[in-house]
Amino acid sequence: MKTILLSFLLILTLGGAQAQTRISGFIKTPKGKAVANASISIKNSYDGASSDSTGHFDFTTFEKGKQVLVFSALNFDKDSVQLVVEGKLMNLNLLMKDAINELETVTISAGTYTTGDAKKGAVLGSIDIATLAGSRADVIAAMQTLPGAQAAGSESGLFVRGGTAAETKTYFDGMLVKSPFNATVPDQASRGRLSPFLFKGTSFSSGGYSAQYGQALSSALVLESTDLPDKTTTGITLLSVGGGVDQNIRYKNSALILGGYYYNLAPAYSVFKQQQNNFIKAPEQGGGSIQYKAKTSNSGMFKFYAAYGVAQLSLNSPNINVPSSPSYFSNANNNIYVNSTYKAYLNASWKLEAGISYNRDQDQGLMVQNNYKRTDKLLEGRATLTHYYGRLSNVKFGAETFNTGRAESLNNLGRSYTDQLSAAFAESDIFLSSKVVTRIGLRTEYSSYLNRYNVAPRLSLGYKTGKDSQLSFAYGRFYQNPEDSYLILKALDYEQADHYILKYELNLADRLFRIEGYYKDYANLTKVKGNQLDNSGSGYARGFELFLKDKKTIPNGDFWISYSFLDSKRDFANYPMLATPAFAAKHTASLVAKQFIPAISSQIGATYVFASGRTYVNPNNPVYLGDKTKSTNNLSLSLSYLTHVFKQFSVLYVNASNVAGFKNIYGYQYSTDGQNRRAIQPSSRRDIIIGLIMTIGDDNFVR
Amino acid sequence: MKNLTKTLTLALIAFSLNSFAQTATEKFQMGMKKGLEMLGSAKGTDGFNSTANYFERVAQAEAKQWTPFYYAAYSNLIAGLTTTDKTIKDQYLDKALAEVDQADALSPDNSEIYALKGYVQYIKLSVDPQSRLAMMSASSASLAKAKALNPENPRPYFISGQNTFYTPEAFGGGKAKAKTLLETAAAKFAIFKPASAIEPNWGADQAKDLLAQIK
């Protein structure tokens, strides 16, 4: 009896440890390809195995009864099956489905160039923008090297595919920026106000963009601000034209960033002769900003940015009618910009984004002998809800309202207008598979000042033609209010453009190639006939563009080439007929190259931009805008030397524009009688900026 | 005889009960020991992938332990480092980062976990340095935190030293700078005692190897 009990207990004890089940089999794709390195395991146990190169796996388990067998592998969707484990050998054949690989998934990308550090399909990183030779850390100047954009000329802003600068709108975290440029000087392009260091990503769309963005006929420049800085650091920038300080203070889940700057171009202007204007007071500007960013939850982020800047200048600009009495011009500008946004996931499938922004830009001064003053204002509120469904698809709803307007006065005569523009939009990205996507969107707007509605449909398609290649199509209708300078005179109708875009893209790990063709049809453009304004203008633009970016061919270096062909005519503003505008050069090409040379710890950059001749009005030629300038060329070089100053990580850089000294002429201005003319040229033939950027509290070259 | 039987019976009962009672911790200790042996003998991407799979199994069965996530992350990191397949390199590293975060959730403010995080972030950077330069400061922030959390821990010094060793001088790296850090690490390794047999205790040999390359 005792012996029996003993044996029984022995069996029980040993038996508990012995009742194993052997599970083996193969793991494959539905097409029969072996999946290597997959993990196969019994849920909530240590038991399992990894598959070998033939997809075979084999393991034993002590678990019993109903169990869940989980299997996963990189590039495949995780899956599981129910098993009843009974001690008998189990032979299994498991099937795994290909996971949707983000890099190999079709995207909505017709017309869009995305930049950013961690973005899929990114064309340029933030560092590319900041260190681009000739750009002087100006976001807009960097965009001018991309296809679709005109080379910098004598006007401010981005001229895209035959569109005026007013047809390109800038968005800061989804909020429209009314005055993204510094005050404009006659016949001279001015810089963008927003520093590239504020942003982690930029999306430059030359057409066919999302229904989220309205009030832009040609192009949307969408800037996405950085998140929390990693550390508390101090950045000091010393330039040959001024300097700035910024302080990042990092708390556990939030950060405060304070910045200030002062620039004075007087010393530079005394060295580099100004060809256009005779400055009495060279541009001088200063300002400050404050940012607060807080992570409110795992997915929640609150951002606040406020900036204030002042600038002033005065000059005599040449007067072609009476050369002995140049035109006096002075300007004092102040600009307030506030942007506050919040985004968070409400649950696993709904995301909320909301924001409020305010922009006020004020210019005043003397034009010859007349006092002028101009104030532009924009207050915007916006909210968007996005619902994610399926594996990749989503649907978005949103609404925004803008209180916008201008007030201006000349001597003591004043006028103003205010518009309450409200918009609602809905858009859905529908993935029919990981190879086919369609985006359908609709946007509607109502302007109280125009007293009119509009409805704009948008459509995009993407089809993956191979692992690395994609074909895209986009169509969209775009509306925008006429420019402030017209609206202040009369409430007109919306201006309108239709875009048709076809693009092919080959996207390899270190190389990117794109070719894109488009047609753009303008209607309802504002026309000036004597003292009358109406919406009888029209026009078209068509062309194609090439882009090649290569990070592979040259070790430690990369380069990109863009080429744009543009054929555009329009009949708008004060044009007497359909004509090619000055801002529509037929051929534009740029080559941007960067090379890091470890031996001298330096990066050398070069940017070469070519543009064929621009049209200009010659009153002696019966054909309006019938004359063309010679083509323009510009070669800029930059050198960034990474070093330490007072043991702090520093970058010393030199940026030289138009090093070859090409004599570029953007157009001619004729005297009223047509007898005399003067060439409109860049503000100076050559230009050099020397700068030192120091980062205190960080031993890396990162800002 | 009767007594002996009784004693044996009782002993057996006690043994089987005892083995039940101890299962949880003992099983975990044994499981981790087995995993560390696998890790010690792992070769090539496939070997580290299998080790990662093993530690992931232990991690999902042991909801409160940070070490299985830590070693799963470490194994995925090495698998990502060694693989020549560019398309999955980032996936291994992303998995490693996610597992570091899971370990961090279970054991907040752990010097070892932040040290490993700094390691993974640096390797992420090195996959595409031109466009991921911003990860350099993320990595050094994690390592600084690891050093602050436990100044006795040699690994953050070793990893900083290793990162510095492979960073060009122009970007704040270089062998001379690495040497100081690696020497500090070596001194700390000499006196470091892990809290238990399954807690991190690696890096001393690698630090010596790197130092030998500098001299």
From TrEMBL, chain A:
UniProt cross-references to InterPro entries, sorted A to Z: CarboxyPept-like_regulatory
Alphabetical keyword list: Receptor, Signal
Coiled-coil segments on the chain, per record: none
Protein name according to UniProt: TonB-dependent receptor-like protein
Signal peptide: 1-19
TrEMBL record, chain B:
Signal peptide as annotated in the record: 1-21
Keyword Signal: yes
Keywords from the UniProt entry: Signal
UniProt keyword annotation of Signal present: yes
Protein's name in the database: Tetratricopeptide repeat protein
Organism expressing this protein natively: Pedobacter duraquae
